[in-house]
Structure formats: structure tokens, C-alpha cells
Design a protein that fits this description.
Largest sheet: none
Radius of gyration: 18 Å
Helix content: 55-70%
Shape: globular
Number of strands: 0
Structural class: mainly alpha
Distance between the termini: 26 Å
Order of helices and strands: HHHHHHHH
């Protein structure tokens, strides 16, 4: 029992081994996915990705009384629970990228905490809901940009063998995606800005970026602290 608590404490501090950290991410991801599926299945209108916004699943005013509780709890766990992930990534970046790693960890943590706060402030609680939602969607691409930028820096500037050239180009492509997502939120005049599928697509891309960092960070599982 004590050993499990020690492992969890290290994972929460961002200092766990890669296997333990991977299980931690898996539990958060599976719990969130299951909660969202439950909320969508019992959403009354019924649910679809064209007309229903993400926040609608956690909105008690649409009579989704059974589903919105699952959804909002998952927002809190997903948001606050991912903060150790950014500490983990930062601890496994090279010393030369310390500044960018710290910036990425801080910005992504702000984004995650804001995401968790959406669970406490569902859509009817305005303007607080929109404030934390925009803060989250603004900050995620910016923070990921720092993390992905350090990986490119590792290859191009430091001439390190990892990541290889193919992965470097893949990372660069993802950086373009996050820049586009960021532009979509700072440029509300764009035709797709106020469109539910854009929000779903943006969130899916952000999740891809967050979880793929686990696979893109090499090493023996020992944090460089």
C-alpha cells in the first residue's frame, strides 16, 4: 500500500517512471471518455456533433440532469489531473530547453485548471463559464507550442539524434495545427469560429497534442531534475 502511495506521489509531482505515468494518463483518459459517452447517450435532443457544443453536455438547463453530473465531474478530473503530465514533460526536456519547458508547463497548467473550472461553472453561469472556457482554449495551443518547439529545437539547434527527421516534420505539422486553432479563437470574424464542429475538432486536436507528448518524450523514465 505504501509503495503504491509513493508511486502515485512521484507521478503527481511529475517525477514518476514512464510506465507509471502512462497508466496514470490512461486512467484519466478512459474515465473522461466514458463519462462523455454516458452524457452524450442520455442527452435529450438527441446528441450530434453538428448542433451540440461541448458545454451543452454539462448544461443542466437542457434537461440533461442525469448526464451533466458525469460530464462536469470528468471536466474537473481531466483538467486538474493533467497538471502532473506537464511537469513530467518539463522534467524530461534537455537542460538547454529549461526556459521553454517551464513556460510550456505553466501555460498548459493554466489551461488545464481553467478546463477543470468549467466543471464548476457550467454554461448557465455566465460570464464566468465563457471566461474560463476561452482561457483554456487560448492557453492550450500556446503551451503546446512551447513544448513542441523545444522538441524541434532539440533536433535542429542541438543536433541531437532524437527526434528523427520524420518525427520532427510531424511535430512541425502539429505546431501549425495549434497555431491555426489559436488563430481561430483570436479571430472571431472567421466563418468557422462560432461553429460547434470547430470546437469539437479543436478539443480533439488539443487532446492529441497533450497525450502524444507522452510518446514523443524519450528517455529511460528518469526525470531530469
Amino acid at each position: 500500500m505504501k509503495g503504491g502511495i509513493d508511486i502515485l506521489a512521484r507521478v503527481v509531482a511529475g517525477k514518476g517512471d514512464k510506465k507509471s505515468h502512462g497508466y496514470y494518463l490512461l486512467i484519466i483518459g478512459v474515465y473522461t471518455a466514458v463519462s462523455w459517452v454516458i452524457a452524450a447517450l442520455i442527452y435529450p435532443p438527441p446528441f450530434n456533433f453538428i448542433d451540440v457544443w461541448i458545454s451543452s453536455l454539462g448544461d443542466p438547463s437542457v434537461l440533461n440532469y442525469a448526464g451533466y453530473v458525469h460530464f462536469n465531474i470528468s471536466l474537473v478530473i481531466f483538467g486538474f489531473g493533467l497538471v502532473p503530465h506537464y511537469l513530467y514533460v518539463r522534467n524530461h526536456l534537455p537542460p538547454e530547453a529549461k526556459g521553454a519547458g517551464i513556460a510550456g508547463a505553466i501555460i498548459c497548467s493554466i489551461a488545464s485548471v481553467a478546463w477543470g473550472l468549467i466543471g464548476f461553472f457550467p454554461n448557465p453561469i455566465q460570464p464566468t463559464h465563457d471566461t474560463v472556457a476561452y482561457l483554456s482554449f487560448f492557453s492550450f495551443p500556446a503551451g503546446l507550442y512551447f513544448f513542441y518547439g523545444t522538441l524541434v529545437f532539440q533536433r535542429v539547434k542541438l543536433k541531437k539524434p532524437w527526434p528523427n527527421l520524420a518525427i520532427t516534420w510531424l511535430i512541425f505539422a502539429e505546431m501549425i495545427v495549434y497555431l491555426s486553432l489559436f488563430a481561430g479563437y483570436v479571430a472571431p470574424f472567421l466563418p468557422f469560429h462560432d461553429w460547434a464542429p470547430y470546437e469539437w475538432g479543436a478539443f480533439a486536436s488539443i487532446c492529441l497534442g497533450i497525450f502524444s507528448l507522452y510518446f514523443l518524450i524519450p528517455g529511460d523514465g528518469k526525470a531530469k531534475v
